[in-house]
From TrEMBL:
The lineage of its organism: Bacteria, Pseudomonadati, Pseudomonadota, Gammaproteobacteria, Lysobacterales. Gene3D superfamilies: Cytochrome c-like domain (1.10.760.10). Keywords: Heme, Iron, Membrane, Metal-binding, Transmembrane, Transmembrane helix. InterPro entries: Cyt_c-like_dom, Cyt_c-like_dom_sf. This is Cytochrome c. It comes from the Bacteria. The chain crosses the membrane at residues 5-28. Residues 173-189 have a biased composition (Basic and acidic residues). One of its GO terms (molecular function) is heme binding. Residues 68-152 form the Cytochrome c domain. Residues 167-189 are annotated as: Disordered.
Length: 189
């Protein structure tokens, strides 16, 4: 028994030292174009899915079918999300092929409202998905969630239409370029 414990401790020390040498050596390729092996990717996917499910479970979903809420969410989505997640009628852009993990096309499925709220608010570590909660209150994030429930039903023309009618994304003023945004420009006084 004692021998077994000593062997185990030595093994642990060797593994920790090995990992340390590996990290310090710099041979690991951190490039986004050097994809994970299948087992590593599957492991990270499982970690991500379980984490989101666990953290989202207590969230209380408000009423999401309010047309004003959906309209507000459309404006938010058009201003902040299409570069990565696209929208009906939008072709691939120059950024998405290089993103890893690849952002899903949110017009292709309806994410669970609780999980969508949690992901939008907190983001996803070591991916391109930002934590929008750092700059948006819960009510604004729920408007995006409400819009995502509608998005898969929209044709390119309907998408364009709802975005044109949406209130401007006031948070855009932070960047000082609201005047130059083609969709926001129509709403400027
Ligand atoms: C810079 C790129 C980027 C931007 C901008 C971005 N996202 Fe994401 N988003 C991602 C990536 C990448 C993932 C997937 C991460 C992963 O798979 O681990 C993701 C995942 C998500 C998911 C989870 C989808 C699922 O699989 O269930 C939702 C919901 C989401 N984003 C909503 C939004 C919304 C709403 C906005 C705009 C406010 C937004 N994202 C802006 C990159 C982005």
């Amino acid at each position: 028994m004692k021998r077994f414990i000593i062997t185990l401790v030595v093994l642990c020390v060797v593994v920790i030292a090995g990992v340390g040498v590996f990290i310090v050596s710099g041979v690991y390729n951190i490039g986004a174009d050097a994809h994970h092996t299948r087992p590593v990717y599957a492991l990270m996917q499982a970690l991500r899915e379980r984490s989101i499910e666990h953290h989202a479970q207590g969230i209380v979903v408000p009423k999401l079918d309010d047309p004003q809420l959906i309209l507000k969410g459309a404006g938010q989505y058009a201003a902040m999300c299409t570069g990565c997640h696209l929208a009906p009628g939008m072709a691939e852009n120059e950024m998405r092929p290089g993103l890893y993990p690849k952002p899903p096309q949110l017009s292709k499925f309806r994410p669970d409202p609780r999980e969508a709220f949690w992901v939008i608010k907190h983001g996803i570590k070591m991916s391109a998905m930002p934590a929008w909660g750092a700059s948006h209150d819960d009510a604004t994030i729920w408007s995006m969630v409400a819009f995502l429930q509608k998005l898969p039903d929209l044709s390119p023309a309907q998408y364009k239409d709802i975005v044109a009618k949406a209130p401007p994304d006031e948070d855009m003023d932070m960047h000082g370029d609201a005047d130059h945004h083609p969709d926001a420009a129509e709403h400027q006084p």
